[in-house]
Every structure is written in structure tokens, then in C-alpha cells.
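Deviation from plan, reported transparently: copper (II) ion complex.
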Amino acid sequence: MRYLVGALTLSVAAIGVGATAWHASAAQEAQVVEIVAERFSFTPSEIRVKAGTLLEIRLESDDTIHGFHLAGTDIDVELPGRGRGKVTVMFQPKAGRYTFECTHVCGAGHSFMRGVIVAAE
Ligand SMILES: [Cu+2]
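Because the crystal trials were delayed, the predicted structure below was used instead.
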């Protein structure tokens, strides 16, 4: 399992997302979070974790192209349309609230398409 997580993270580091978080915590198992994007919401839209948990966030669209930007981090990726694969990012939150939002204009409700990761001590 540890080997698998490492392999996934190397591919993430290659596109410049979440690399710093990874190096600080190479020995830690990641908690997998799956998020599905569709017009005009993310499911789940609220994710609660313990602060310091290394998250492997797997993002997938159920319709068109969407974006995923996690405020306060350098995580900003584009999700391909339905059936065209997932995008994985690594994130290890300190205590706090981290809003995420769609960054690819996807229709009338685009600006309401957001959610939050809440990391508590
Ligand atoms: Cu959008």
C-alpha cells in the first residue's frame, strides 16, 4: 500500500501539485477522499478531517469539465469530463477551513459550485 501511495504522489508532484505536503510526510498513510463534481455542486461538499491528516483527494466529474481550486494552497486542477479519468491531489491540512471551488466556467450555477474541507485539532 505504501508503495502505491508513493507512486500516485510522484505523478502528482510531476504536475506541481501538493509536492511540498508530500515530502513532509512520506511515512504517513493517506486517507482517501473521493469527490464527484457535477453541475453545480461537489459531492460531498463538506469534508471533516483531523488536522494533520494526509489526504489523497480523488476528483472526478460526472458531466462536463470542471475545475478544483483549494483556496490558500497551490492546488488548482482541471477535471476532465465524465468517463475521462480522475485527478488525484495530496493535501495535508493544518487546523482550519479550506474552501474549494470550481474554476472552469461550467454554466449558470458555476459561481455557486464550492465546498469546504474542515480540519479540526
Ligand atoms: Cu464551474
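Residues 1 and 7 are 10 Å apart (CA to CA). We consider this an acceptable substitute for the interim report.
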